[in-house]
Amino acid sequence: REAAAQGFSNATELADYLVGKGVPFRTGHDIAGRVVLQAIDKGCAIEDLPLSDLQAISDKIEDDVYPVLQLEYGVNQRNILGGTSKETVTKALYQELENLDKQG
């Protein structure tokens, strides 16, 4: 968990959040990149930046962004075959356990 949180992987979620607010993808990606640079400059994680800093970069960012920036949010959004969500991984593990039981 600690390693995943250090890599700004939630920048992708920020870009997706912005697209959901009507921002074109390319612009959302650019904004997310500027937010990452701001976090690096301040020596903190994206989710630790104050709302005023985020809104100085884009007025499309509102206080509802903070849950989106949590690591668990991004992981659980990937609820597809081969995805990283808890539900998907649990299902895959149970399927493999069944396969092992069948093999004896």
User: From N to C, what is the helix and strand string?
Assistant: HHHHHHH
Radius of gyration, rounded? 17 Å
Instruction: List unreliable stretches of 5+ residues.
Output: none
Total domain modules: 2
Give the distance, in angstroms, between the N- and C-terminal Cα atoms.
34 Å
The number of distinct β-strands equals: 0
What CATH calls the topology of the largest domain is Ribonucleotide Reductase Protein R1, domain 1
Largest sheet features: none
What's the architecture of the largest domain, going by CATH?
Orthogonal Bundle
Helix content, binned percent = 55-70%
Q: Number of helix segments?
A: 7
Strand fraction equals under 5%
CATH class of the largest domain: Mainly Alpha
Q: Report the average pLDDT across residues.
A: 83
- Sheet/helix structural class: mainly alpha
Rough outline: elongated
CATH superfamily of the largest domain: Fumarase/aspartase (C-terminal domain)
Structure notes:
- This protein has 104 residues and is mainly alpha-helical.
- 67% of the residues lie in helices and 0% in strands.
- The longest helix is centred in the N-terminal third of the chain and has 18 residues, at 25-42.
- The model has no long low-confidence stretch (mean pLDDT 83).
Nutshell version of this structure?
The chain is mostly helical and 104 residues long.
